[in-house]
């Protein structure tokens, strides 16, 4: 069913899928940079949601601002305003669904958002799963190279052409350079599952290793041959690891 949320005048397009035999846990799933909540059966978040519901965990997926069916322009998207999106969805889950436990699962940039939101809401979040979390986005912005773009990190332009159809806002990069990713994330002291592929060409697995170093209760799975998309033969392993970790 639709689970749309308003954040600062923007409509965030979400979907709530309850478990047939609910156990009191709701998982909020977050997609990555240029992605969406998943609209076909092959999407990682769709497959995760299906597996989680089978073990009694209801799921909420949503499109961040400027992505998918949500309001906003991609050029205005930043990690801080994606955190604001996620916080609005979290608050809606608390008030509308009132679950016993809330877990967060994020892929790529969605993993960064999930990790920081869990740090801010450490007393609210129960468990956290980070899949190829793109914390290197800060390092990339400082170095002046992001997803194929090359720019002067000390004089970032207002906009940069990411592709024929997408324009990245310079403010995204300016905020990325100063994000306190690990400092915020480590405030969460609950259970964390980290999953990364050793063949990831977009986010160095070192990002997950750094998370593992700052968390108090984390497990780190480095998957041989897995890419950033965690697809192919690795997909079933990812689904198994995440579901087993979230399952009560």
Sequence-ordered SSE layout with sheet pairings:
Blueprint: E1 5-7, E2 10-12, E3 14-17, E4 25-30, H1 44-54, E5 58-62, H2 79-97, E6 101-107, H3 109-120, E7 125-131, H4 136-143, E8 145-146, E9 149-150, E10 159-161, E11 167-169, H5 170-177, H6 181-185, E12 192-197, H7 206-214, E13 218-223, H8 234-246
Parallel strand pairs: 4-5, 4-6, 6-7, 7-12, 12-13
Antiparallel strand pairs: 1-2, 3-5, 8-9, 10-11
Helix pairs in contact: 1-8, 2-3, 4-5
Please describe the biggest sheet, giving its number of strands, its sense, and whether it closes into a barrel: 7 strands, mixed
SSE pattern, N- to C-terminal: EEEEHEHEHEHEEEEHHEHEH
Q: From the structure provided, what is the oligomeric state, counting identical versus distinct chains?
A: single chain
With strands numbered from the N-terminus, the spatial order across the biggest sheet is 3-5-4-6-7-12-13
Number of strands: 13
Low-confidence stretches: none
Domain Serine aminopeptidase S33: 28-140
GO molecular function, one term: hydrolase activity
InterPro entries: AB_hydrolase_fold, AB_hydrolase_sf, Hydrolase_4
Keywords: Hydrolase
């Amino acid at each position: 069913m639709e689970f749309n949320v308003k954040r600062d005048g923007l409509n965030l397009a979400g979907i709530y899928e309850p478990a047939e035999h609910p156990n009191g846990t709701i998982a909020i799933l977050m997609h990555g940079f240029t992605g969406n909540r998943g609209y076909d059966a092959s999407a990682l978040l769709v497959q995760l949601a299906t597996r989680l519901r089978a073990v009694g965990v209801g799921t909420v997926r949503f499109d961040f601002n400027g992505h998918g069916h949500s309001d906003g322009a991609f050029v205005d998207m930043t990690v801080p305003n994606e955190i604001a999106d996620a916080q609005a969805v979290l608050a809606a889950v608390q008030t509308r669904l009132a679950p016993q436990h809330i877990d967060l699962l994020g892929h790529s940039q969605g993993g960064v958002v999930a990790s920081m939101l869990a740090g801010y809401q450490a007393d609210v979040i129960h468990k956290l799963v980070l899949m190829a979390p793109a914390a290197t986005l800060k390092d990339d912005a400082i170095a002046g190279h992001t997803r194929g773009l090359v720019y002067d990190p000390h004089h970032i332009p207002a906009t940069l052409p990411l592709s024929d159809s997408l324009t990245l806002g310079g403010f995204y990069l300016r905020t990325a350079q100063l994000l306190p990713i690990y400092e915020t994330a480590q405030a969460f002291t609950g259970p964390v599952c980290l999953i990364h592929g050793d063949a990831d060409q977009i986010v160095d697995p070192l990002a997950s290793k750094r998370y593992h170093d700052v968390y108090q209760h984390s497990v780190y799975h480095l998957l041989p041959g897995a890419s950033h998309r965690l697809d192919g033969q690795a997909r079933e392993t990812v689904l198994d690891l995440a579901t087993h970790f979230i399952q009560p």
